[in-house]
Amino acid sequence: MPKNKKIRVCLLFGGKSGEHEVSLQSAKSIYEKLDKEKYDVLLVGIDKDGQWLLGDAANYLLNEENPKLIALNKVNAKPVTAIVKQESAELISIQSGKGLGSVDVFFPITHGTYGEDGALQGFLELLDTAYVGAGVLGSAVGMDKDVMKKLFKDAGLEVGKYVAGTRKTLTSDALQTAIKELGFPIFVKPANLGSSVGISKAKNEEDLKAAMDDAFQYDTKIVLEEFIPGREIELSVLGNDEPIASIPGEVLPNHEFYSYEAKYIDENGAGLEIPAKISEDKVKEVQKLAVRAFQSLDLLGMARADFFLKSDGAFVVNEVNTLPGFTKISMYPKLWELTGIPFSELLDKLIELAIEKRAEKDKLKRTFDI
Ligand SMILES: Nc1ncnc2c1ncn2[C@@H]1O[C@H](COP(=O)(O)OP(=O)(O)O)[C@@H](O)[C@H]1O
Ligand SMILES: [Mg+2]
Fold it and tell me: What residue ranges of the chain have pLDDT lower than 50?
């Protein structure tokens, strides 16, 4: 890429997941903070059916100040798709087939199913383009609460006891064994989802059955987890092969747990304390664990790593989020800001990391002589 040319960034947001609205809010703050001296920005909103719509910066969102009513503005938005074109990817109009702009790097900020789980990353991979964040593998395992824990364990991280299964494998015998092993209360979760959707805390067998039915509405695989009493400590991680971790923050839910309601509905659902009030030694310890969690899943670019800090001082890893919330008040950018990387600079780094990784991949041999 010539040095003085602006980098063409395509921000992808919205999408088919339940986190569509959150994604629009993330996109809005990213768009505002992207340095327009450095970047030409193409705004592509993905609607709830999965259609890509190229919008106009002046009016690509409706009700943008209202987190509940915020929506894509489809009027005048052009349906597009992306294709491979020589050196870079190209957005083309579905209607006319005409090129509407080449793209140097995609910035997907599509939280949840299809956008965060490797599906969209697979499409971007086929375009041979640079894109921000985890690749196909990292996105997929970073979404699956069962496989993720297996890889964490393999990396020597402490993980809570859990049992994963489907309707067929979680027979009544298997369930009795699980109850004995985990004890009540049991957290029940769809294996692949986010935003606490479909998650319940079951206090007895009756609760457990209802919780499982609920979780099975969202996924064919669920996880049952032992309850881990502890503080919720979160860190932001940034980098490719040499990731760094931010200062930790603490989530203080005012509900029984950090539920969907506490996250998005109730304005006073949770408090964030940044930095978390923990000793310097503990900060160093959890920063190392966050980097290890990131590396154990082969992640790239960014992730938020979430832990429980138990009263005995041990950190238990809960999960990572490969496309964390990016609104101005979201934990991921806030933690970096207080660590010394302002929002705009953070976006520069993420774009740089994406371009770097693409360049590395471009150097690989794709054919070989027999
Ligand atoms: N095993 C557990 N023990 C105690 N609390 C838990 C446990 N698992 C989840 N929680 C609570 O539920 C919230 C959501 O669970 P999490 O696994 O982070 O799902 P999501 O991916 O939807 O954020 C956590 O932030 C925490 O408050
Ligand atoms: Mg979580």
Answer: none
Q: Which residues of 248-283 are buried (b: 16+ CB within 10 A; e: fewer)?
A: bbbbebebeebbbebbbeeeebbeeebebebeeebb
pLDDT tens profile 158-170? 999 999 999 999 9
- 161-226 topology per CATH: Dna Ligase; domain 1 (3.30.1490)
Q: Which residues, other chains included, contact 316 with Cβ-Cβ below 8 Å and sequence gap of 6+? A: 158, 159, 160, 228, 230, 307, 308, 310
Extract the tokens encoding 319. Answer: 């999960």
Global pTM reads: 0.95
d(CA 348, CA 339): 16
Residue nearest to atom 19 of ligand 1 (CA): 196
Q: What does the longest C-alpha to C-alpha distance in the chain come to?
A: 66
Q: How far does residue 194's CA lie from ligand 1's centre (Å)?
A: 10
Q: Which ligand is nearest to the CA of 253?
A: 1
Q: What is the CATH number of domain 229-322?
A: 3.30.470.20
